[in-house]
Amino acid sequence: MERAQKSRADCKAYAKVNLSLNVGGTRGGYHLIDSVVASVGVFDEIVAAPRSDALVNVYMRGMGSEAIPPECNNAVRAGELFVSAFGTCGADIQIRKNIPLGAGLGGSSADAAGVLNAMAALYGKERAELAPLAARCGSDTPYMLAGGFARISGRGERVERLPQNVRPVLHMLLLLPEGGVSAAACYKKYDESPDPLRADSARLWAALRAGNFADVCKNVYNALGAPACALHAGTAEALALARSLSPSACAVTGSGSGVFALFETPELCGWALGHCKNRKKLRALAVRTV
User: Any catalytic annotation for residue 12?
Assistant: First the structure.
């Protein structure tokens, strides 16, 4: 087994929001999507230390993650795939969760990507080598390896990123109700009543590249928003609250339960945050894209 080149690797696994999300049928039992996504300043903290054997141990803390069984933990799967693919020793991995579970912020995929990145740092592998492993850990995981702004399509395996010299900054309020929404249940609900409206991901993508905030906001939409609201009353209430704050745009992210609201300035975002304090069963955060 290949030994580690470092004694420790630390990384941050950032949450994402779906600025747009279309569902376009299925392939091989998986839904096909067209979505513009962005990393935001909420992240899980990952620390990996090498082992002398092939075991991968993952220790979760925070957000109720301690109750996730290892056999259902995407982070464990990512680590085991890494060891199997590269023939390396394993790792002891600590993950401090700050991304809520079941909020549509990609926490599970972020952790899987973070584990792959941390183990790559330990064992001297390049990020480009991780893509096939990431694709086996969930539809968002290939994107999560590097994060940032991207347009993802297919099952999530096709990732187009903004050029390095294009770095728009979006300010938003995250409204995170208690409890999560099952992605599988949300897609099933969508299939029962497909959404005839569609986000124009191509126009939103072009607007991001051009730095046109108004056009970005015109094309914010999530086809999974209605089923998420139907499945989780807290999501519907959070979306109604977001709309009441007169944002430039707002939508459910992913399959819920989280909601985001875009504001033109950080000051407006801070004002909106002030109106959401001390609400029961709702966590509010002012964040920016990273």
Answer: no
Long-range Cβ contact pairs of 156-159 (< 8 A, separation 24 or more): 156/33
Q: 84 preceded by cis ω (within 30°)?
A: no
Q: Residue type for 129, please?
A: E
Structure tokens at 189: 């609900």
Closest Cα to residue 221, out of 25, 16, 18?
A: 18
pLDDT tens digits for 78-91? Answer: 999 999 999 999 99
34, 44, 111, 140: which one is catalytic? 140
Contact predicate 11/117, CB 8 Å = yes
Whole-number pLDDT of residue 155: 87
Catalytic residue among 16, 97, 125, 189: 16
pLDDT tens, position by position, 101-156: 999 999 999 999 999 999 999 999 999 999 999 999 988 999 999 999 999 999 88
Query: With 90 as the cut, is the pLDDT of residue 30 above it?
Result: no
44 is catalytic: no
Residue with tokens 């109700």: 177
Selection from 230, 183, 198 nearest residue 22 by Cα: 198
Structure tokens that stand for 89 in this block: 């020793």
- The runs of H, that is alpha helices, within the chain are 74-86, 107-123, 131-135, 141-144, 183-192, 201-210, 213-218, 225-231, 233-244, 266-274
